[in-house]
Every structure is written in structure tokens, then in C-alpha cells.
């Protein structure tokens, strides 16, 4: 008569035999699991899985790190980044090699005189720092499109980032992979919160694209920039459909939230919150476009703050809304310091109360020529539009409630102050015929002396502002 232990052992053996039979009866291409993930230390974890290797069932019940000992080849070949393939042996070992797999007719494997390793994934190793910057279990399907998701996202993503960890590391890894492997591409940043502790640099033709305000990048960098182009030789970067916010609670006197120092680049469809930054968006390379964005912020202290500063030629800034955040101060909401800039169909709002959070809604800097400002609405600053440029064109703009000038009046030149040369104005609000105003089309004379830069804030405290040279 059998004991209970013998019966249980026989049942377990039967179950084991049944499982083995079920696996061995599957096609040779059978594979389940082995999900590859990359962490902030550039370590690759291979998840639990089961497959067949040369007819032998191989399974892992827990996640495993790739180790240096798993590499069959040198990591740095000729100083160039490269794809590598992750193989699995019959004896449950992982092997990494540059040799691409071959297709047997049923599955992919590594061609070798005596070994038949099964391919289960793919890596990209960046030769500049000898770090793995991308990995995937989809070794035969990859492109210049990657996906970044919040940890816990149930779908497939190339990068999973925890809300509490430094997102800049894996966001930078995504850029490096797209730039080095494909000379550009798109990082699709799914909805979630990503906090960055270091500057994220974008290279030529790299796009960071989100899913609207739900794709939220919180910038808490130790450096002087949140997101930046790589440098003057970089071009074609794009930031699209993201919410980007500086979360510093104290004044960062040298900080730029977004620096577009890459020509032919753009920011589109974004919400930018620039509190306690010197600059929200800084552009110092030509032929860049800013469109359909909302920018708010200022500084809590009596220092200089700008929501957008354009210091390059041939910029296009259109269909945007700039506004002061309650309790924050702004020197120039928009500073234009380049030539041939087009600033069109934008709105700038200060606060509609006596504290006047915006000093100047727009400032065209001295000796900058052929700036065009058209169809814009500027309200509730101490000054509306201050022009010091050469041959500036002002077409169809509306300025009201700036300084002491309400409505369309401009008696104190607070809605519009022209200190420029050769200004051309047509159909702007300050040109309309009202009491004590000139007739339509007549320009105001340049004042004999520049007005004081004193800006009286909160309780009558005088603060003197001076322009900043960002070169």
C-alpha cells in the first residue's frame, strides 16, 4: 500500500512530465518571457521566461542581470557604437556577441561549429562611454522610434522610469541611442511624471514627443539648464506636446529651463512653467520656431526673469500665450534680441491688479533690425511694447491697460514706447483717434530722455532693473 508521500510524489512527477511534454511538443520557435529592461545604472535585466534551445527546454523562474562575464566579444569595436545580440545556451547561460543570428527556418540562432545558442534579445552599446543605452527582447524589430513609460505601465516600452528616480539618466540614454544608432529619431514619452536631476541634452534630429500635459517633465536640475540642445553644431531638435516645469522653490539666477541652442529647431504644443528661472525658453541659434505653446512663471524675488528670450536671427514665434503667474515677477515677458524675428498672433497677460507683475510685455533690444510684431495682444504690464530696434514693423497689435494707459490711449506711452529708428506702424491700437491722441497712422515722437527703469512693486518698494547681456 502506498503512503500519502508516495502518492504526492507520483502526482508531482506526472505534472512535471506533462509540462515537459507540453513544452517539447511546441514548435522550435516557442519563446515566452525574457523581457529586457534597462535601469539607471545602465544594467540590463532579463526577466523570467521559457523557451527551447536545440530541442531542450530552458526556463528561468526569476529575473537575472547580464554580467561582464556573459560577453563573448570586446565591448568597444573601433570606438564605434554597435548593436549586440543576447543569446541563451542549453545550460541556462546568457551570452552576448556582435554576430547577428541566422534563421534556421523555424527560429533564430547563432551559427557556430559546435554551439547552437538561441537569440532572445538585442542591445545597443554606446562607445563614447561604453554603456548600454537600449535593450529589447524584440531583436528583429527595431527602429528610430522608442517609447518611455512610467514604471508600472502594462504595455511595451523601451524605458521604464519610476516617478521618484532621476529620469534624466534614461531620457539621456534614449537620446544617445537614437542619435548614435540612427542619427536621429523620436522618443515617445507616455503620460506620467518624470523628474530630472541633471540636464538632458538633445542631439541632431532627435524629437521628444509627449501625450499632452499628462506627459509631465519636472525639472529639478543641479546644473544651469533643464533641457538643452547639444551645442552650436546641433540642428533639428524638437520638443513637442509636453508639460515642462521648473520645480525649484528658490530663485535660480543663472538657470534656463529650456535652451534651444540648435539651429532649425522647434518647440510646439507645450505647456512650459518657468518659476524661479532666469529664462523659461532661451533661443540662441537661427531659424528656430516656437508655436502653439503656453508659458507662465516669473520669480519670487526682486530679480530679473524672462519667459522667452530670442537671441538669434530668423526666429518665428507664433500662436503662443505668455502670462504671469500670481505672486511672481517678470522683467521682460518676451525679449527679442536678434534680427529678422517674426512675432505673430501671440498674447501676453500680466495681472489685472495694482502690483503689475510684468515690467515690459515685449522688449525689442537696441540696434536689432527688421523685427516684425503683428496681431498680438499685450495687456496689464507696466509697459506694453518697448521698441529700441531699427526698422521694426508693428502691424495690427492691441495694447491696453499697460501702466497708466488704459483702453487704446497712449498718453504716457505705457502701451507703446518707441525708442527705435525707422519704425513702421500700421493699424495698431495706439494709433486710433481718441481725445488728445494723434490721427490714425501718426507715430508718437521718441521721448527726449529715456524713462526711469524703476518698477514699484508690492507696497511701494522701488526695484531697479537693468538689461542682461546673455552672450
Topology at a glance:
Layout: H1 4-24, E1 31-33, E2 36-38, E3 44-46, E4 49-53, E5 56-60, E6 64-65, E7 82-88, E8 94-97, E9 102-103, E10 108-109, E11 118-126, E12 131-136, E13 145-150, E14 159-161, H2 167-182, E15 185-189, E16 192-196, E17 200-202, E18 206-209, E19 215-219, E20 225-229, E21 238-240, E22 243-246, E23 252-260, E24 266-268, E25 271-275, E26 277-283, E27 289-291, E28 294-298, E29 306-310, E30 316-318, E31 321-324, E32 330-336, E33 342-344, E34 347-349, E35 358-364, E36 372-374, E37 377-379, E38 381-387, E39 393-395, E40 398-400, E41 416-418, E42 424-426, E43 454-457, E44 461-464
Parallel strand pairs: 13-14, 13-15, 15-18, 16-19, 17-20, 18-21, 19-22, 20-23, 21-24, 22-25, 23-26, 24-27, 25-28, 26-29, 27-30, 28-31, 29-32, 30-33, 31-34, 32-35, 33-36, 34-37, 35-38, 36-39, 37-40, 38-41, 39-42
Antiparallel strand pairs: 1-4, 2-3, 3-6, 4-5, 7-8, 7-11, 9-10, 11-12, 43-44
Strand order of the largest sheet: 14-13-15-18-21-24-27-30-33-36-39-42
Class of secondary structure makeup: mainly beta
Separate helix tally: 2
* Rg over alpha carbons: 30 Å
Q: What distance separates the N and C termini?
A: 94 Å
Tell me the fraction of residues in β-strands, as a range.
35-45%
Q: Describe the largest sheet.
A: 12 strands, parallel
| Overall pLDDT metric | 84
Low-confidence stretches: 17-23, 434-465
Range of helix content: under 10%
Tell me the overall shape.
elongated
Strand tally is: 44
